[in-house]
Amino acid sequence: MLCELCRRFHALGWASGTGGGISIREGERVWVAPSGVHKELVAEEDLFAIDLDGALVVPPRDPALRPSACTPLFLHAYRLREAGAVIHSHGKSAMLATLLGGDALRISRLEMIKGLAGHGYRDEVVVPILENTDREEELADTLEAAIRAHPRTHAVLVRAHGVYVWGRDWRQAKAHAEVYDYLFDVYVRMRELGVSR
Ligand SMILES: [Zn+2]
Fold first, then answer.
1. Tell me, which fold does domain 2-193 have in CATH?
2. Tens digits of per-residue pLDDT, 49-89?
3. Residue among 71, 1, 2, 57 at smallest CA distance from 29
């Protein structure tokens, strides 16, 4: 399933140029794709399995491969939120939404908000925005702090970069990623149109 999701997310523009990433938890194991490879071409034999402390459990076929740079960030969502899958998107809507400023994106009273677990139509969705770093793994500490500070969020944005989204399993993580992508796109368009909710 991880490879299939990589193909789908690449087709959506969420993993262009080998960016982005996905991981799925299976009990105490976390499966992650390798770093710097074309996500739409990742095969089962290329995947790593690590434990929740990041220790290697199953290596990929090619020993030259390295786990995705997102791996320490994925582990925070698994440990702090009992996530079953985490998606990292470089989608344009997420990235553009962060360029509009602020330390969090806020949006409410849109039907699609119901697609986020624990949220109703009238709830305000608050997605924290982190400042980007030179290396992806350097985001791990600020991501952890943002997850702790925003117990209702299922996503954290990174300025001029993208978004991390999680769910209790891959199905919910995929649904959340699609809903957030919709909300980020609408947020940008609302600002263009000069309307607010
Ligand atoms: Zn990234």
1. L-fuculose-1-phosphate Aldolase (3.40.225)
2. 999 999 999 999 999 999 889 999 999 999 999 999 999 99
3. 57
